[in-house]
Amino acid sequence: MVPSPLKPLAKAIYHRLFRLHLRVRLWCADRVGMPVLDVPLPPAILRYRATESLSVPLFLKVGQGCANLVQRHVSGMGIDFANVRRVLDFGCGCGRTIRWFLRDCGDVEFHGVDADTDAVDWCDTHLRPGHFLAIAPDPPLPYAAEYFDVVYCISVFTHLNESMQDIWFTELRRVLKPGGVLLLTVYGKAAASELDAEEVSMLRSSGFVHKRSPKLKGLVPDWYQTSWHSREYILDRLSAGFEEVRYSIIPDGLQDVVVARKSGCG
Ligand SMILES: C[S@@+](CC[C@H](N)C(=O)[O-])C[C@H]1O[C@@H](n2cnc3c(N)ncnc32)[C@H](O)[C@@H]1O
Predict the structure, then answer these.
(1) Cα(205)–Cα(254) distance, integer angstroms
(2) Residue 203 falls within a domain, yes or no?
């Protein structure tokens, strides 16, 4: 056991070594043979920022799984993807999900936005025929009200603090058409095993926990941390601006899915 006065020092050394080790792995990952794909693969650092993993098969498998999940849950709200006009991937990162929609999108316009300018630049250069924009971490989005039929956010609200979360719910609702659907993923019960006893108790009492990661200091922006939600909390929060809100637990998944329909009257 490390004596308690030395614990913070031991932790700081561990986190420093973790970051150094990660930088070396990222450097190596871009230099080993990469598979040749019909849609190019983003560099390791961009994949890592989106997935906290360097595995290429995992990046592809999870991205395809997310695209299927979006399609399934949006269809479950009565919206046929083939017949919509515009879809927004809010927090698209390096395009892990949108790349699968762009392969066969017909007349549907797919847009992606993110505060990570490197990721957006990469998408803009490599993922056709998508429309990509780098945005500020705070609203507004550069789109007219009621511009999108569907807005989806994979692993985005799992990172925002409560005030950012609330202003983005309002903004995403603004850009949705009446009757349009917002889909987002959250860390729910299955992911709560990563919390300590005090945090679990906070999740139970307030429904929301936002936790800093000292390990990733300097690798991700400071405002980008990890959040957990209870089912009741998120249903209540979204019910204020949306007429129908559904929560689904994904079997074997760490993240749950929430879909919310904007009222047909605007
Ligand atoms: C875990 S990554 C997921 C990326 C992508 N959705 C995916 O599933 O691969 C979260 C993304 O949300 C973006 N993001 C988080 N907060 C944001 C904000 N306030 N404005 C714009 N982008 C944000 C981050 O930059 C990051 O790319």
Answers:
(1) 21
(2) yes
Residue at 87 is within a domain: yes
Q: Which of the listed residues 47, 101, 114, 255 should we mutate to test ligand 1's pocket, taking the one with most ligand atoms within 8 A of CB?
A: 114
- Please compute the mean of the pLDDT values over residues 138-162 and round it to a whole number: 96
Domain of residue 144, residue span: 34-261
Q: What CATH number has the domain bearing residue 239? A: 3.40.50.150
Domain count, the chain: 1
Q: Is the dihedral of CA 163, 168, 171, 176 positive or negative?
A: negative
10 inside domain: no
C-alpha separations of 138 from 91, 169, 171, 217, 219 in Å:
12, 11, 10, 21, 20
Ligand 1 centroid – CA 2 distance (Å): 37
CA nearest 150: which of 259, 49, 248, 232? Answer: 259
User: How high is the pLDDT of residue 63?
Assistant: 95
Distance 158 CA to ligand 1 centre (A): 9
Residue 50 lies in a domain: yes
CB within 8 Å of 117: residues ≥ 6 apart: 134
**Which has the higher per-residue pLDDT, 221 or 80?**
80
pTM of the model: 0.89
